[in-house]
Write a structure and sequence with these properties.
- By secondary structure, the protein is of the alpha/beta class.
- The protein folds into 2 domains: 146 residues, 3-Layer(aba) Sandwich (Rossmann fold); 224 residues, NAD(P)-binding Rossmann-like Domain (Rossmann fold).
- Helices cover 47% and strands 15% of the residues.
């Protein structure tokens, strides 16, 4: 049996969940279907004067809520089915974490490492022009964000191009998220996906009964972690896991992996990687011949945070982790899911654990629509109120707080504090909903299926409220 494609794996997960619902079959087909796909080809004048034809896509999977939302990836092997699969996941992800967007995704078939900054800017601006021309971008239509191979730099180019093409549009900056803060972005967005992953794992690890069934103690402290991919998601996931007391024992990258049972100094590793372009031969670690082989090393929590289809039926039987925490989109195939579930390995799916990015993108979108940063209205008022309370306590007791402690007690919430608070609440509430669904369906149902059922139910309610289906 050949391994299912990424899109087929997403559809299998949907079908498994849909079979456990009582929704009209036609409604389920509508929820599963991709509403619109735009494929565009355009020429690029390279720096050397040569011409190249660029292939690009944008898929809007679901219009049950608008705008649609999803990243744009730059990768040499991106294709239509991959973009549709990613857009599908975005629909379910947004529904699961109560973010009022439909799902979308975009892709441009290039290897960004092989293009100059000027060439990348021309590609990005032309792609934006094509999206504007077909109404595939806009604050109320479709709001992109970064993905593999893109960053806040590309988002700034998109926002600038859109604003030029839509002069006078008051909410133009809300056409894209994960912009630089000084250009309408929000504090905390860069690290949001990695932070959300750790917030989710903290909720899961606090369940003593669940941890006992996995043979683990509650909490993240002391847990041995392997991370695949030190991009934006993987780096911050590793960073925040270490801050929570976990031990980074392995890192997998394109060129191979490194392993150190006593722990890896993440920041020193990043310094070496920036200087040499590789994680290999890091002092105090042993090299592993391949990225995939690194995933099979002993650990408590495995975080695949690179690309899809990294854990398949070929290596699922070799995974030694107790928890697979999906930081990337689609790193585990449908057949691998079955093998891991049978082995009592908890797979925490991307549709939940990878949702920190879109959650904080939602906050940025709201900030752009309101035209005021979070905390601006209330921060000083809170600090004055807290200071009066502390002053009253000191007056009544005759004791005074040390200056450092006093500053912490009276500090009002700034933008990043509020963003992180909203992200934590989102991850905690969504996990409770997944657990409630699983409790209703029974423990024979895995977490991914329970998450998909939860998302399908929410999308179905939206369609029913619109009067489209009874």
């Amino acid at each position: 049996m050949s391994a299912p494609s990424f899109l087929e794996s997403v559809q299998i997960a949907f079908d498994r969940a849909a079979a456990l619902t009582t929704h009209d079959p036609t409604l389920l087909r509508q929820i599963q279907a991709c509403n619109a796909i735009y494929h565009v080809s355009f020429p690029l004048r390279r720096d050397d004067g040569s011409l190249e034809v660029i292939q690009a896509w944008r898929a809007q999977h679901s219009h049950h809520r608008l705008p649609t939302k999803g990243g744009i990836r730059y990768a040499p092997d991106v294709h239509k089915d991959e973009v549709v699969a990613l857009a599908s996941l975005m629909s379910y992800k947004c529904a699961l974490v109560n973010v009022p967007f439909g799902g979308a995704k975009g892709g441009i078939r290039i290897d960004p490492r092989k293009y100059s900054v000027g060439e990348l800017e021309r590609i990005t601006r032309r792609y934006t022009f094509e999206l504007v021309r077909k109404n595939f971008i806009g604050p109320g239509l479709d709001v992109p964000a970064p993905d593999y191979g893109t960053s806040s730099r590309e988002m700034a180019w998109i926002a600038d191009t859109y604003a030029q093409l839509r002069p006078g549009e008051l909410d133009a900056m809300a056409c894209v998220t994960a912009k630089p803060v000084e250009q309408g972005g929000v504090e905390g967005r860069t690290e949001a996906t990695g932070r959300g992953l750790v917030f989710g794992l903290q909720e899961i690890a606090s369940d003593a009964d669940l941890m006992k069934r996995l043979g683990l103690s509650p909490g993240l402290k002391g847990k041995r972690v392997i991370v695949q991919g030190l991009g934006n998601v993987g780096y911050y996931a590793a960073k925040f896991m270490i801050e929570a007391g976990a031990i980074l024992v392995g890192v997998a990258e394109r060129e191979g992996g490194i392993h150190a049972p006593d722990g890896i100094d993440l920041e020193a590793l990043m310094v070496q990687r920036r200087a040499t372009g590789t994680a290999m031969n890091f002092p105090g670690t042993s090299n592993v011949e391949s990225s995939i082989a690194t995933l099979e090393l002993p650990c408590d929590i495995l975080i695949p945070a690179a690309l899809e289809r990294q854990i398949t039926r070929k290596n699922a039987g070799n995974i030694k982790a107790k928890i697979v925490a999906e930081g990337a989109n689609g790193p585990t195939t449908a057949l691998a899911d079955e093998i891991l579930f049978a082995r009592n390995i908890l797979v925490v799916p991307d549709v939940y654990l990878n949702a920190g990015g879109v959650t904080v993108s939602y906050f940025e979108w709201l900030k752009n629509l309101s035209h005021v940063r979070f905390g601006r209205m209330e921060k000083r008022f809170e600090e004055d109120a807290f200071a009066r309370i502390i002053g009253a306590m000191e007056s009544s007791t005759g004791k005074h707080f040390p200056d450092d402690e006093r500053r912490k007690l009276v500090a009002g919430a700034g933008e990043e504090d509020l963003v992180n608070s909203g992200l934590l609440e989102t991850m905690a509430e969504s996990w409770r909903e997944i657990q409630q669904t699983r409790g209703r369906l029974g423990s024979a149902v895995d977490i991914r299926t329970a998450a998909f059922v939860t998302a399908i139910d929410k999308i179905a309610i939206t369609y029913q409220d619109l009067g489209i289906f009874p």
